[in-house]
Amino acid sequence: MTLPGAVPPQEDNPDQGVAWHYGDPFGEQRAAARTVAVVDRSNREVIAVPGDDRLSWLHLMISQHVSELPENTGTEALVLDSQGRVDAHMVLAHRDGTVWMDTEPGAHATGARGDQQSLLEYLEAMKFWSKVEPRDATAEIAVLSLIGPEAVPALEAVGLNAPTDTYGVDGMVRRMPGSTFDLLVPRAELATWWSRLTEAGARPMGSWGYEALRVEALRPRLGMDTDEKTIPHEVNWVPSAAHVAKGCYRGQETVSKVHNIGRPPRRMLLLHLDGSADSLPSTGDPVNAGERTVGRVGTVVQHHELGPIALALIKRSVGPETPLTAGGVSAAIDPDSIPPDTPGLGREAVKRLHS
What we know:
By secondary structure, the protein is of the alpha+beta class. About 20% of the residues lie in helices and about 30% in strands. The strands form four sheets. It has a six-stranded mixed sheet with strand order 10-11-12-9-1-13, with helices on both faces. It has a six-stranded antiparallel beta barrel with strand order 14-17-16-15-18-19. Helix 1 (about 25-35) crosses helix 6. The longest helix has 10 residues, at about 25-35. It holds the Pfam family Beta-barrel_CAF17_C.
């Protein structure tokens, strides 16, 4: 959707088709932190899963416990490969007899023969005799996100109710962690709802601002903060997107074993980058401790208060005070981003999982 004042993203930006910013990316972030901002995220793909068996079938397909997911609730979930590595991440909303799943553009999954399929192709191949009809609903539904401490009054001003529980769903509104609400609006009405929200006081914010706040909140993004070896525990997707107790889904053995008897070999941490450097690292660049590569750079952003920061997957053995470089730029670990250890036997148990 092309909106007044929108600055398009650069060619290598993953959020093509939506605004990068609206002329003042730091002001947009401040509005989201202090009042309310609205973000066009209509580039996300949407898959609809109707049918009598939708919950029992999805329960077998994805990492989250959804066999009894009530109407008007949602959750996050993953599709894993047979080794427990993350293929796809999605956010669910169960309403009107359908599970709506929004996911990254170009989402894919590993097929039964090891080939890469689109996420929809993978789901269709796994229907068998189940009473489900997954379909591409991207042309039907678009995602807007409303962020900030004044998001609830903004929703009320346009006649929408704010769910009280995280992942609660009320009509087109789904509450997310923090002060964020996703609106799953009819795509044909996207411009109308954008206008209504901005007229209600929400400041337009581009993907730059959304990503900066996401990085600050330590929320990973598939393909940016993950690589082909990432397991859910490394990026804090347990338990928000992966259930450790339920069985009978692909990759479940790894999820359960790492949770119960091991620790993930890497952990996603926040890095503070040297703001005086001529350039910033790029996603996928190595993180080094001296001459030794100890990690991978994920999302890199300019934050309105923290300056240049990045998420990175770092080996567990690296201490918080270790001097690092990220893509050749000096970097320091934010100690507050270090997650508590999962009880277990240590990395040797996890090493066996990856062997």
